[in-house]
Specification:
6-stranded mixed beta sheet, globular, binds nicotinamide-adenine-dinucleotide
């Protein structure tokens, strides 16, 4: 089984290879097989990508927004037409079940491209009257934007960054995660086929140092990173040296609060979606599930039964509900957290081991109960199918405990009392929240984090703010009043 692309990189409208870059392998996580071999971008590849982006952006910015939008809408249509082929590639690259990649990854990417194509022509400035004079403002593109992706939603991340960047008149050089490098190359191909001029969307592969070289290049106006907090701190600092704009989509340890008047079945379903979808490798997961004591026993009983019925298996099989983790490294990290949770006294409700499935990186869906706020699994991002259930008594108490974290990406509340739902969400320190739902992230809704979980927002009208800059123009209509 092979998924070797024509070349490692995609620069100035075509595939590009430079075998002088250090080689790395792409692994199918369900079997451990090597499916492609790529090379890190060399300084020559990085330079060519940035130079072509710089050149192409100047012309792209001069087009009418509707003309840019037409090309992007065509790209969204091509993604939908090739949905099955793209879903299969995403499954090979990430190990995520085909039943997820058919509906979540590329479809969400196509939505973003379509949405920002539609939005861009409506973006306008203001006029500000000043007596006989006035000021008008223009919303201009930033220039060359760098996108750096994580491995959990590689193609969705590439689309979520490329869509607003391109629609609003910027160019982008995108570096996918070295763990899942294949989807972004397809996006580059599709954009060219849709009519995007060469150079506007380039893909360069490589590990951290390739990202670092991009972030510090003087031709770059903006950096949008999806990744962990430690990487975010480094990238933000490097961008600061050049006073570049940033969007930082980082990690989380989000609370999902279940009050005792909630529908237990809905809350259990949401907690499972928010911990087991994509084998738990989702940044906004509700990994601290706070359950009010009166329903704890019932909640755990139904959760255990439904978790044990999850079908683990080959992610290419449409019946499979949970695939492997993305890599051996991630497998070891997650199993390490499971052992720590056991050692720190959490009660194992179900799972807790590696699952025997071929040579893949599978972990059983795992639930710990009686987790306390100081335990490692209640404080650190596990990024695997490991749910921590914590008990609480009162609303006041759970709000304080939910906020007692350095992260602030997401939060959810389940309750039949909508006034309480809004009241509690109003006091939670998180950027992306749900009431009686969890982890739904439609493109129309801004997405991003508070506190250490990030800076800026993707999606929705909010993203316009992060891919444009305002120029204000004072227009004098009278004589110049100079005192000398
Ligand atoms: P990571 O931080 O290890 O890597 C992210 C990307 O940064 C990769 O492409 C990597 O090569 C690159 N990188 C590493 N060092 C760099 C440097 N010094 N300069 C520039 N680039 C560098 O993250 P990961 O393991 O790929 O992804 C998992 C993390 O991503 C989790 O913490 C998860 O919560 C987070 N995440 C956040 C969101 C969000 O929208 N908030 C979405 C998905 C994932």
């Amino acid at each position: 089984m092979k998924a070797q692309p024509p070349a490692s990189h995609f620069v100035d409208g075509q595939p590009m290879e430079d075998a002088a870059g250090a080689a790395f392998e792409v692994i199918f996580p369900a079997t451990g097989e090597v499916i492609a071999r790529l090379h890190d971008a060399t300084p020559a590849v990085i330079d060519r990508a940035l130079a072509s982006a710089h050149r192409a952006q100047a012309e792209w910015a001069m087009l009418r927004p509707v003309d840019r939008a037409r090309i992007l809408r065509r790209a969204a249509d091509l993604i939908r037409e090739r949905g099955e082929e793209l879903a299969q590639l995403e499954t090979l690259d990430t190990g995520k079940p085909i039943q997820e990649t058919r509906v979540a990854d590329w479809p969400s990417g196509a939505d973003a491209i379509e949405y920002f194509a539609g939005l861009a022509p409506t973006v306008t400035g203001q006029t500000i009257p000043l007596g006989q004079d006035f000021v008008y403002t223009l919303r201009e593109p930033l220039g060359v934007c760098v996108g750096i992706g994580a491995w959990n939603y590689p193609s969705q991340i590439a689309c979520w960054k490329a869509a607003p960047a391109l629609a609003l008149g910027n160019a982008m050089v995108f570096k996918p995660s070295e763990v899942t490098p294949l989807g972004a190359l397809k996006l580059a191909e599709i954009l060219i086929e849709a009519g995007l001029p060469p150079g506007l969307f380039n893909v360069v592969q490589g590990r951290g140092p390739v990202g670092a070289a991009l972030v510090s290049d003087p031709r770059v106006a903006k950096v949008s990173l999806t990744g962990s907090v430690p990487t975010g701190q480094k990238v933000y600092a490097a961008a600061a040296a050049g006073v570049r704009n940033v969007t930082m989509e980082l990690g989380g340890k989000s609370p999902l609060i279940v009050f005792d008047d909630a529908s237990v079945d809905d809350a259990v379903g949401a907690a499972m979606l928010g911990n087991f979808y994509s084998a738990g490798q989702v940044c906004s997961n509700g990994t601290r599930v706070f359950v009010q004591k009166a329903i704890k026993a019932e909640f755990l009983k139904r959760l255990k039964a439904r978790s044990e019925a999850i079908r683990l298996g080959d992610p290419r099989d449409a019946a499979t509900q949970m695939g492997p983790l993305v890599s051996q490294t991630q497998l070891e990290k997650v199993l390490g957290y499971v052992e720590t949770a056991k050692a720190e006294g959490a009660t194992l409700v179900t799972g807790g081991s590696r699952a025997a499935q071929g040579g893949g990186f599978f972990v059983q869906p795992t639930v710990f109960a009686d987790v306390t706020d100081d335990m490692t699994i209640a404080r650190e991002e596990v990024f695997g199918p490991v749910m921590a259930v914590l008990d609480f008594d009162t609303e006041e108490e759970v709000i304080a405990r939910a906020n007692d974290t350095e992260f602030g990406l997401a939060a959810g509340v389940f309750t039949a009392d909508l006034a309480r739902g809004h009241r509690v969400i109003g006091r939670l320190q998180a950027g992306t929240c749900w009431i009686n739902a969890y982890n739904l992230t439609p493109v129309e809704s801004p997405f991003g984090g508070a506190k250490m979980s990030g800076v800026g927002r993707e999606n929705g009208h909010a993203a316009v703010e992060y891919y444009t800059q305002i120029k204000s123009v004072y227009v004098g209509l009278g004589p110049v009043d100079a005192p000398y």
